[in-house]
Amino acid sequence: MDVKTLYENLKKIQEPKGYFFNKDKDLVFELLDSLIKNKERYGYMACPCRLASGDREWDKDITCPCEYREEDAKEFGACFCGLYVSKDLHEGRVEARYIPERRPVEKIM
């Protein structure tokens, strides 16, 4: 799969759920390319902003969209890597903020 196809597929799935791609399309395409590479490398699309172990079960919390996305988007307007943003951030009602790492320390390599 190429980046543009992944972009279109995910956009159709995520926007109805209230998650939008970051307006920085260069960043989005770079992150999507990294997701594709992680899929080729590990067999699953691990978050490109975190170090994957190669163990699908261990990394299920960081398989995109990660399990932290919803909480991050509610609290900070975007997910940790900035790929997805909330509707409020997308429409300019809130400003982007620093997003702290939520992944437990024992899972960070």
From TrEMBL:
One of its GO terms (molecular function) is metal ion binding. Its cofactor is [4Fe-4S] cluster. It is an enzyme of class 1 (oxidoreductase). It catalyses: [thioredoxin]-disulfide + 2 reduced [2Fe-2S]-[ferredoxin] + 2 H(+) = [thioredoxin]-dithiol + 2 oxidized [2Fe-2S]-[ferredoxin]. InterPro entries: FTR_bsu, FTR_bsu_sf. Its EC number is 1.8.7.2. PANTHER family: FERREDOXIN-THIOREDOXIN REDUCTASE CATALYTIC CHAIN, CHLOROPLASTIC (PTHR35113:SF1). This is ferredoxin:thioredoxin reductase. It comes from Desulfamplus magnetovallimortis. The gene is ftrB.
